[in-house]
Amino acid sequence: MPIPTFTSPSTGTVPVLSKHTSEIFDVLSPTEQRAFFTLLEAFRAEIDAKGDDVEYLREIGAVNPGATVAQTKTNVLDMCNWQLATCLRYSTPTRIAEATPCLEKVIAHFDSHHTNGEVDVTPVLYLGVALGQEEAAVRHFQAAYAHAPAIEMQYHTQLWSRACFSRLLRRMGRIAEAEEQENDIRNWLLGHPYGMPPSTFCALVTDPMHEGKDYILDHPSVKRMFAGMSEIAPGFVVHFG
């Protein structure tokens, strides 16, 4: 049988290992999200149990002529773990804190193939957010940003993770370091006025559970910029002045 698929009226039928999970989850209801996650989790368990059988791997279309059966099983499990972590990240509300075991396996898999100190930036940033433990999270954030110091590629993840990092640093009393992250976020926004709608930016850099001042959105420069915009429909923004 092929890799399982998930069907929803809003997305149609998609494979559970689709590369467009973040887009899919954006339109699924929380109930559908949980169903997708459960299906994917069951598939990972099946791979774990049957992935040593080359005939099974052939049935699901996972056989790679250049890889051994063991390597193929490991690679498919890695895809499942990353997909599960992505599902948890984009769940409504986010369940990123539950993704730690999956992310640790993804990072370990990457590290086993890269011995030159290279960092798999996005999973490491996810893990920094997921951990929530102060020093452990800081180490992961710092390792990732050392390899990706600017908000360029993967800017959604960069903005989201830097906002999480800044809140963590403020909780730790490391205000100057938090301000560096907040400045980087604001500078990206001010330098990309057409980069994304205000609603998308706000969703990335805020935490519904956070209480108190928002040091990103409450900054005068951000307020001035948003005052010159009107989001008249999701994703459709009119700029004034």
Task: Identify the notable features of this structure and list them briefly.
two-stranded antiparallel ribbon; single chain; about 240 residues; two-stranded antiparallel sheet; mainly alpha
Notes on the protein architecture:
- By secondary structure, the chain is mainly alpha-helical.
- The protein has two domains: 1-113, no CATH class; 119-225, no CATH class.
- Helices cover 60% and strands 7% of the residues.
- It contains eleven helices and four strands.
- It has helices at residues 21-27, 30-50, 54-59, 69-90, 100-113, 121-131, 134-147, 155-171, 175-191, 198-205, 220-227; strands at 5-8, 12-15, 229-233, 236-239.
- A hairpin with a 2-residue loop joins strand 3 (229-233) and strand 4 (236-239).
- The longest helix is centred in the N-terminal third of the chain and has 22 residues, at 69-90.
- The N and C termini lie far apart (58 Å).
- The mean pLDDT is 92.
Would you summarize the structure shown here?
By secondary structure, the chain is mainly alpha-helical.
Overall mean pLDDT stands at 92
| Structural class assignment | mainly alpha
What is the number of independent domains?
A: 2
| Strand composition percent | 5-15%
Molecular shape: globular
| Low-confidence regions | none
User: In DSSP terms, counting alpha (H) and pi (I) runs of 4 or more, how many helices?
Assistant: 11
Fraction of residues in H or I helices: 55-70%
Mind telling me the C-alpha Rg? 20 Å
Largest sheet: 2 strands, antiparallel
Query: How is the largest sheet built, in terms of strand order?
Result: 1-2
Secondary-structure element sequence? Answer: EEHHHHHHHHHHHEE
